[in-house]
C-alpha cells in the first residue's frame, strides 16, 4: 500500500476547545470521504492538512513532504488543491480571471502555459463557455465549480474538498459527484461532507470524526456493515432505538439494538454512520 | 513522524516558476486590473484630455521649459489619489470577499502578494511618465519654446503616483477597512492644504510631493534654486520605504526586506534633509540673482536686428526674432524720427526673491530702451507692443508713465492696429478686458491709463482702414506726440469723432 498522505498524532486546540485530538490517518489515491457532525473537527483537520493552520502537536507528510518546515510547506502547497468550506470569490473577476489568479498564486508563471491550464480546468468542470462571465453573474452551482476549478488548477496530487456540495440542488450535486469522481482518478482526494450518499457513491474509503477524533476508518461497506442487524422496522417509534423516523410507507425505521423478533432491514451507510457516532457525545437522532 | 511511502503524483503537472517569477506574474495581473479600475481609468482619461486641451491653448505658444516641467506635476496628484484608492481596494480584496482562507494555503505568501501589489503600481507610474513626457515634449516642440527642463522636476509626477499607490497598499496592510484609504486621502489633502504653505519656502512644504510657488513669473533656469533632484530622491526614497513597510507589515521579515526598509529610509532622509538645507539660496545663487536683476547687461547676449538692439538672457536669445517682429511693425507705422528710431530692447526681471516675489519692474529711464519680460505669447504681445509704441512716442518708459493726454490715442493705435485682431488685442491689454470706459493698460513695467474718451477714439480708429490712418499719423506725427495734445485734437487730426468730455485720468 502506498500512502500519499500520512498523519500521526495531530492535535489542535482553539482556546480551551480541543478541535483535533490525536488524529492519525493514512490516505491513498482515490476519493476518501470524511463524515462527522458539525463541530467534529472535519474542517480543522482539512485546514491542517491544507497547511492553512499548523497543528499544536503531531506531524504529517503530503506526497513525501513535511510541512513542518517552511520549505516543506511550500513543497506541499505546490502539490495541493484546496477548496475551503466557504471559498469566497472576487465577484468582479471573470471565472477565467479568478482561476488564473489562483494559478499564479500556485506559481504557474508562464503566461501561455498557465492560460492553457486555466482553460483546461474550466472545460473540465464544464465552465468553458462562461469563462468570460463575471463571477457575480454566475449561479451558486457555477460558482462552486469555479472554486473546484481553482482547486484543480496546476494538477495537484492531493485535493482537499470541504463540503463542496453544500447548497447545491440534486442535479448540481450529481454533476459535482461526476467531477469529484474524475478528480479522484490518479490523485488523492479528501472529501468532507454531510452527505452520506456522496460518500456511498464516490469514496473507496471513509473516515468518521467526532469530537476531534477519528472514530472510524475503513471502507464504506465496512461502515455499512456496522449496522448489520441493527436496523429494523416497526409501526411505532421504538423507544429503545438510538434513532428512528417515519418513512414514506408510514412505518418507522429504527436504528440501534433491535428487540427480539424485530423485522430487520437492509442497513445503509447512513445507518452505520449514525451508529458509529453513538456514544461519542455527538447528536445522532435523525 | 510516520514512515511513509512516497508517491510521485506530479507527472504531467504544469511547469512552475519560482517565487520571484510568481510575484512578477501577480504584479502584472494586478497592474492590469489597477489600470482598468474605474477611478484610475477615469483619472488617466481626464489627464490625457487635460493635456490635449492644455496644449491646444494657442496663447501659450511660447513656453519656457523651466516652467513647463513644473506644469507637469499637478495632474499626476489626481492620478495618484485614484491609484491610492484602487491599490488599497485591490489589497483588501481577499479580505472583503473572504478568499484569504483559500489563499492562505497557496504557495505565494501574503507578503509576496503585498510585494506584487506594490509592484503593480509601477506601470501606473510609468504611464504617468509617458503622459508627462508627452506633455513636456509637446511644449518643447513648440517653435517658441525656450529654456531648459529639469529631469528631476519631470520625475515628480510619476514618483507622486508611485508614492500614493504604495501608500494605498500600506494603508490596506495596516487597516483592513475600505474606509481607511478615502480617509487617508482626506487627511493628506488637509495636511497639504493647511499644514504647509504653498510657497515652498520652508522645509515642511517640501515634504509634500508637489511644491508650487505663488509666483507666475519665469526665471532663467539657473536662478530657480529649487532642490528638484533632492526632492526626487526624497520622493523615490519615501515610495520605496512605504513599499517595504507594507511588505514588512504583511509578514515579510526577511533580511532583504529589512535591509530594503533601512536603505530606502536612508534615501528618503538624505533627500529630505538635503532639500531642507537648500531652502535658503546659496550665496552664489543670491549673487547671480542680484546680477540678473540689477545689471542684466552683464549676463545678456545682444543681437542687432533691423536697426535695433535686442539683449536677452542666454536662454531667450531665440526669442529676439519675435520681439523684433513687433518692433518693426510698430515702428513702420510711426512718423517723424520715430520711424527710423533705433531702440534697445532689453530683457529685465526681478529674480532677487526667487520664485517668491512677484513685484512689478520699474520703468527704464534710459532713452529709447524698451523692457521685455521673460514671458511671451498671449497678452504679453500687445503689452510689449504698447511699451514699444509708448517709448517711440514719449522717448522712454519713464516718460511714458505719466502720459495722460491725446498721445495715448497714438500709442494705442500704433500698438494695436498691426495685430491680427486689433479689438481683441485691445481687450487683452486692458486690465479689465473691457472695450469701453477707462481702464488700466498693462505693459512689461508700470501700467498706462486710458480714459473713456481715448478708448472711444482708439476703437473708432481701429475701425478705419489702417493705411489711411497710418498716413494721417505720419503726417501729423509731431503734433500727435507733443505733450499736452488733447484727445479731441488727436481725434480731429486722425479724422474720427472726438470725445465729448475733456480728458481726465482720474475719471
Secondary structure topology:
The complex is a heterodimer of chains A (286) and B (507).
Chain A: E1 5-14, E2 17-27, E3 30-35, H1 42-49, E4 57-62, H2 70-78, E5 80-83, H3 95-105, H4 111-124, H5 140-152, E6 158-162, H6 170-183, E7 188-192, H7 196-202, E8 205-210, E9 213-218, H8 220-225, E10 231-234, E11 241-246, E12 252-256, E13 263-264, H9 269-277
Helix pairs in contact in A: 3-4, 3-5, 4-5
Chain B: H1 19-36, H2 38-55, H3 65-68, H4 75-96, H5 100-103, H6 110-120, H7 122-140, H8 151-174, H9 180-195, H10 228-249, H11 255-277, H12 283-294, E1 301-305, E2 308-312, H13 320-333, E3 344-347, E4 369-372, H14 380-394, H15 397-401, H16 407-416, H17 422-429, E5 439-441, E6 448-450, H18 452-463, H19 466-475, H20 477-480, H21 487-494
Parallel strand pairs in B: 2-3, 3-4
Antiparallel strand pairs in B: 1-2, 5-6
Question: How would you sum up this structure, described in words?
Answer:
The complex is a heterodimer of chains A (286) and B (507). With 286 residues, chain A is α/β, with parallel strands linked by helices. Chain A has 3 domains: 1-79 and 156-219, Rossmann fold (3-Layer(aba) Sandwich); 89-154, no CATH class; 229-266, no CATH class. Chain A has 9 helices and 13 strands. Chain A has a 6-stranded mixed beta sheet, with helices on both faces. The longest helix of chain A is centred in the middle third of the chain and has 14 residues, at 111-124. Chain A starts with a strand and ends in a 9-residue tail after the last helix. In chain B, the strands form 2 sheets. Chain B has a 4-stranded mixed beta sheet. Chain B has a two-stranded antiparallel ribbon with strand order 5-6. In chain B, helix 14 crosses helix 16 and helix 18 runs parallel beside helix 21. Chain B is built from 21 helices and 6 strands. Chain B has 2 domains: 19-280, no CATH class; 291-494, no CATH class. Helix content of chain B is 55%, strand content 5%. Chain B has 507 residues and is mainly alpha-helical. The model of chain B is unreliable at 1-12 (pLDDT under 50). The longest helix of chain B has 24 residues, at 151-174. Chain B is elongated and about 95 Å long. At the A-B interface, strand 1, strand 4, helix 2, strand 5 and helix 3 of A face helix 1 and helix 5 of B. Chain A: Pfam families: ABC_tran. Chain A: Keywords: ATP-binding, Nucleotide-binding, Transport. Chain A: One of its GO terms (molecular function) is ATP hydrolysis activity.
Amino acid at each position: 500500500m502506498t500512502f500519499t498522505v500520512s498523519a500521526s498524532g495531530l492535535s489542535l486546540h482553539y482556546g480551551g476547545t480541543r478541535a483535533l485530538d490525536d488524529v492519525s490517518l493514512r490516505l491513498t489515491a482515490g476519493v476518501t470521504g470524511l463524515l462527522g457532525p458539525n463541530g467534529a473537527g472535519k474542517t480543522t483537520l482539512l485546514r491542517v492538512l491544507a497547511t492553512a493552520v499548523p497543528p499544536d502537536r503531531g506531524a504529517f507528510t503530503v506526497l513525501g513532504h513535511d510541512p513542518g518546515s517552511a520549505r516543506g510547506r511550500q513543497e506541499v502547497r505546490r502539490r495541493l488543491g484546496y477548496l475551503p468550506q466557504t471559498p469566497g470569490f472576487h465577484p468582479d473577476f471573470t471565472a477565467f480571471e479568478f482561476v488564473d489568479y489562483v494559478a499564479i498564486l500556485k506559481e504557474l508563471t508562464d503566461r501561455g502555459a498557465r492560460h492553457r491550464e486555466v482553460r483546461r480546468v474550466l472545460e473540465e468542470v464544464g465552465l468553458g463557455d462562461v469563462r468570460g462571465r463575471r463571477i457575480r453573474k454566475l449561479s451558486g452551482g457555477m460558482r462552486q465549480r469555479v472554486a473546484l476549478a481553482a482547486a484543480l488548477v496546476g494538477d495537484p496530487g492531493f485535493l482537499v474538498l470541504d463540503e463542496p456540495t453544500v447548497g447545491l440542488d440534486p442535479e448540481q450535486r450529481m454533476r459535482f459527484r461526476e467531477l469529484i469522481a474524475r478528480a479522484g482518478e490518479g490523485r488523492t482526494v479528501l472529501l468532507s461532507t454531510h452527505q452520506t450518499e456522496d460518500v456511498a457513491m464516490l469514496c473507496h474509503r471513509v473516515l468518521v470524526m467526532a469530537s476531534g477524533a477519528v472514530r472510524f476508518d475503513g471502507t464504506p461497506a465496512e461502515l455499512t456493515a456496522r449496522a448489520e442487524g441493527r436496523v429494523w422496522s416497526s409501526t411505532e417509534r421504538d423507544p429503545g432505538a438510538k434513532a428512528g423516523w417515519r418513512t414514506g410507507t408510514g412505518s418507522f425505521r429504527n436504528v440501534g439494538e433491535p428487540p427480539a423478533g424485530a423485522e430487520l432491514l437492509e442497513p445503509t451507510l447512513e445507518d452505520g454512520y449514525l451508529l458509529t457516532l453513538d456514544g461519542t457525545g455527538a447528536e445522532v437522532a435523525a | 513522524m510516520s514512515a511513509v511511502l512516497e508517491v510521485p503524483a506530479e507527472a504531467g503537472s504544469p511547469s512552475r516558476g519560482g517565487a520571484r517569477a510568481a510575484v512578477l506574474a501577480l504584479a502584472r495581473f494586478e497592474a492590469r486590473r489597477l489600470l482598468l479600475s474605474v477611478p484610475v481609468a477615469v483619472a488617466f482619461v481626464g489627464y490625457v484630455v487635460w493635456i490635449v486641451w492644455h496644449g491646444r491653448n494657442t496663447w501659450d505658444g511660447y513656453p519656457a521649459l523651466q516652467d513647463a516641467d513644473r506644469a507637469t506635476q499637478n495632474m499626476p496628484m489626481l492620478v495618484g489619489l485614484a491609484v491610492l484608492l484602487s491599490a488599497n481596494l485591490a489589497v483588501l480584496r481577499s479580505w472583503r470577499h473572504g478568499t484569504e482562507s483559500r489563499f492562505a494555503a497557496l504557495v505565494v505568501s501574503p507578503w509576496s502578494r503585498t510585494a506584487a501589489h506594490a509592484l503593480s503600481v509601477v506601470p501606473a507610474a510609468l504611464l504617468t511618465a509617458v503622459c508627462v513626457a508627452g506633455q513636456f515634449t509637446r511644449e518643447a516642440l513648440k517653435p517658441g519654446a525656450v529654456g531648459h527642463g529639469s529631469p528631476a522636476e519631470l520625475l515628480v509626477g510619476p514618483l507622486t503616483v508611485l508614492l500614493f499607490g504604495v501608500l494605498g497598499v500600506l494603508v490596506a496592510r495596516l487597516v483592513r477597512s475600505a474606509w481607511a484609504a478615502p480617509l487617508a486621502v482626506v487627511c493628506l489633502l488637509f495636511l497639504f492644504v493647511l499644514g504647509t504653505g504653498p510657497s515652498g519656502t520652508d522645509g515642511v512644504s517640501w515634504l509634500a510631493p508637489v511644491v508650487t510657488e505663488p509666483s507666475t513669473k519665469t526665471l532663467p533656469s539657473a536662478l530657480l534654486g529649487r532642490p528638484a533632484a533632492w526632492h526626487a530622491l526624497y520622493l523615490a526614497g519615501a515610495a520605496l520605504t512605504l513599499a517595504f513597510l507594507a511588505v514588512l507589515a504583511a509578514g515579510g521579515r526577511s533580511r532583504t526586506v529589512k535591509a530594503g526598509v533601512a536603505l530606502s529610509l536612508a534615501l528618503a532622509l538624505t533627500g529630505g534633509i538635503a532639500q531642507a538645507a537648500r531652502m535658503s539660496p546659496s550665496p552664489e545663487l543670491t549673487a547671480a540673482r542680484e546680477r540678473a536683476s540689477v545689471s542684466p547687461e552683464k549676463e545678456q547676449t545682444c543681437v542687432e536686428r533691423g536697426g535695433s538692439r535686442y539683449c536677452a538672457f542666454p536662454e531667450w536669445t531665440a526669442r529676439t526674432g519675435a520681439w523684433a517682429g513687433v518692433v518693426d511693425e510698430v515702428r513702420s507705422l510711426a512718423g517723424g524720427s520715430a520711424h527710423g528710431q533705433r531702440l534697445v530692447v532689453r530683457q529685465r526681471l526681478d529674480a532677487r526673491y526667487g520664485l517668491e516675489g512677484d513685484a512689478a519692474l520699474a520703468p527704464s529711464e534710459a532713452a529709447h530702451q524698451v523692457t521685455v519680460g521673460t514671458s511671451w505669447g498671449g497678452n504679453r504681445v500687445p503689452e510689449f507692443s504698447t511699451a514699444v509704441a509708448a517709448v517711440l512716442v514719449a522717448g522712454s518708459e519713464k516718460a511714458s508713465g505719466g502720459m495722460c493726454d491725446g498721445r495715448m490715442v497714438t500709442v494705442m493705435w500704433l500698438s494695436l492696429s498691426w495685430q491680427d485682431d486689433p479689438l481683441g488685442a485691445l481687450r487683452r491689454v486692458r486690465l479689465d478686458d473691457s472695450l469701453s470706459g477707462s481702464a488700466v493698460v498693462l505693459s512689461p513695467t508700470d501700467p498706462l491709463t486710458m480714459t473713456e474718451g481715448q478708448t472711444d477714439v482708439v476703437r473708432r480708429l481701429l475701425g478705419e482702414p489702417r493705411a489711411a490712418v497710418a498716413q494721417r499719423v505720419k503726417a501729423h506725427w509731431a503734433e500727435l506726440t507733443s505733450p499736452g495734445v488733447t484727445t479731441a485734437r488727436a481725434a480731429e487730426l486722425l479724422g474720427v469723432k472726438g470725445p465729448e468730455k475733456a480728458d481726465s485720468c482720474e475719471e
